[in-house]
Design goal:
The protein has 296 residues and is mostly beta strands. The protein contains 2 helices and 16 strands. The protein has one domain: Porin (Beta Barrel). It is 9% helix and 57% strand. The longest helix is centred in the first third of the chain and has 13 residues.
Length: 296
């Protein structure tokens, strides 16, 4: 909720800020997309999840995710990624992501538009690398970022890091950075962490196996405060996973709560996902749809 308000405020101000501020305005667009993730971002898995945490390994995969915000906001996004099968030096991947906001128009001395549209988007192209060491996974993403708002553009590079660590059969820890520029607070970067604990495994009915997980996540690294996320996951057999998260967002002394839920279904070498947030005020909900496949 506060993230959306901050994003819209950033849109209102970005045109008056120096060109370097366009990168932070672009980061706000991706924070709008993040409200549809039904678990802490550092804990996400899959080809497209390399956007949120580059520590992704396993079989080669190709995947795409599409994000749509409410019509009142008008933002859309796509993340497409491919991860090649792992070799001796680890797993190499390629990622492209773009988030844009439409229906922005110029006005003059009246509130009526003058017919000229305002281009506003942010995009990222990255090469990722990840490797396993026993129960540990480490990943790196070298990224080129490009953001544009009206006639102002910003280009920059970043090196992001991610780790995932399994402890025993029940516990998993993860951490990642996005848009990392320096140690400390930076408007265009996020630092995420998460912990996942499987507290139950058994039979749901007849011979159908199931397991239940509890999750906690934190997002920091940007001005305004620290966000906390609390979630649950239910795995039904192998093919179905249900996820839900409740997040407490902080922004410059204010706090708000939001929620999101998602469904993942595996069919053979394909996995489909659908998620939505709980909606913000009367603006409606944001949605995320994804499809990924294992490479043969």
């Amino acid at each position: 909720m506060l993230r959306l308000a901050g994003g819209l405020s950033c849109l209102a101000l970005a045109g008056a800020l120096p060109v370097g501020a366009q990168s932070s305005a672009g980061a706000e667009l991706w924070r709008l997309a993040a409200v549809t993730i039904p678990l802490p971002a550092a804990l996400t898995t899959g080809a497209a999840s390399a956007y949120w945490n580059p520590a992704q390994t396993g079989p080669g995969q190709i995947g795409v995710e599409v994000v749509q915000t409410p019509q009142a906001v008008g933002a859309t996004g796509v993340v497409a990624a491919v991860r090649l099968p792992p070799g001796r030096i680890g797993s190499i991947g390629f990622l492209y992501a773009r988030m844009s906001l439409g229906d922005l128009v110029h006005t003059t001395d009246s509130p009526d538009p003058d017919g000229a549209s305002i281009p506003y988007y942010t995009q990222r192209a990255a090469v990722t690398w990840a490797v396993d060491w026993g129960r540990s996974t480490a990943g790196v993403a070298a990224s080129y970022h490009n953001a544009r708002l009206d006639g102002a553009t910003n280009d920059r590079w970043s090196i992001d890091f991610g780790v995932s660590q399994r402890i025993g059969e029940r516990l998993r820890l993860a951490a990642s950075t996005r848009g990392l520029r320096r140690v400390g607070s930076e408007p265009a970067q996020d630092v995420s962490g998460g912990v996942e604990f499987r507290f139950w495994r058994g039979s749901l009915w007849r011979d159908m196996p199931g397991s239940a997980l509890v999750r906690y996540g934190v997002v920091a690294g940007h001005p305004g405060g620290v966000d906390h996320q609390f979630g649950l996951g239910l795995v039904v057999g192998i093919p179905i996973t249900l996820d839900v998260v409740i997040a407490r967002e902080a922004s410059y002394g204010n706090t708000a709560w939001r929620g999101a839920a998602g469904l993942r279904v595996a069919v053979g070498r394909y996995r489909m996902s659908f998620a939505r947030d709980a909606g913000i005020s009367d603006l409606g909900s944001s949605y995320r749809v994804g499809l990924e496949a294992r490479l043969r």
